[in-house]
Amino acid sequence: MKIDFTDPTQRLDSFIKVEGDVGGAQVVQYGAGSIYTFFEGQKDRKLFDTEAYAVRRYQRTAGGWVRLHREVAVYRDAMTGKIINSWYNPYLERDVEVMDIVQEFNRQYLVADLGNTFDVSVKISGDDAFFARNFFINREAEIQPRDYPLHGQDTRWELSEYHNYFTKLSELTNPKLTSARCVGATNSVSSFLPWLEMGNAPGHLIFQMRSAKLARVEDMPADLVQYVAQRYPTHLEAPKEFTAADAHTTGMNFYKQIIDKKSSVAK
């Protein structure tokens, strides 16, 4: 089977086979890396390690695909490797409470969006296939500094992510396979995470991650699986249905809901 990567439909279908399974089976994308601060005029500082995974399945829809997706991200002490729920912020000289990421991001990936809001590029070298997907966010921040002086850095929320996927052309072109093996690397630059409580301090975070597609959640580190099973058991399986409301979920809204809930309890 040959693939014409200049054809948007074939390129999108190939990307789904790389990131997921075109047969509808659940896959797991697991990643691990580190997070650093970046301040102008100061030396970069490693804050902690991070570990994240997504459980997802894809379903065909008119004009493309629907991605049904749940994800969890935790943070690990840079020295001990243990999952942390509080962290000593050296810039503030005090502890801050860590907020795990526990999200459901269901999205439509449509052929019509390629080259616009959703872009995927492909490079082929022999049997090696390299996919790239980048996106950039600069929008009004859900967490405004005037309302959240500890958690809001700026009136705008900024994020740039660069995703790379490495697979084999022979697996993409094999009609007997519904999913291609995949390893990847992601780098991103963002405003400070709200739970760091950095207020309006200047600077950014740099994320560096390495990832691999797994067949089962049990193939991830055992302590991560146990941690999620105890705290977020629903996020060990991908959703099975798509609703339009899911498509409007954002990471900053997730943090805002947690902060608002804690503030309400404190009152």
SSE topology:
Blueprint: H1 8-19, E1 27-38, E2 45-61, E3 64-76, E4 86-89, E5 94-97, E6 101-104, E7 107-110, E8 121-125, E9 128-140, E10 156-168, H2 169-172, E11 183-190, E12 204-214, H3 222-231, H4 251-266
Antiparallel strand pairs: 1-2, 1-12, 2-3, 3-6, 3-7, 4-5, 8-9, 9-10, 10-11, 11-12
Concise structural overview:
The protein has 267 residues and is of the alpha+beta class. The chain has four helices and twelve strands; from the N terminus they run αββββββββββαββαα. The chain is globular and about 60 Å long.
Residue-averaged pLDDT? 92
- Treating each run of at least 4 consecutive H or I residues as one helix, how many helices? 4
Helix content: 10-25%
Shape: globular
Rg calculated over all Cα atoms = 19 Å
Profile the largest sheet: 10 strands, antiparallel
Q: Number of DSSP strands?
A: 12
What's the N-to-C terminus distance? Answer: 63 Å
Which residue ranges are poorly predicted, with pLDDT under 50 across at least 5 consecutive positions? none
Structural class: alpha+beta
Instruction: Please tell me the total number of domains.
Output: 1
Question: What pattern of helices and strands is seen along the backbone?
Answer: HEEEEEEEEEEHEEHH
Hey, roughly how much beta strand do the residues contain? 35-45%
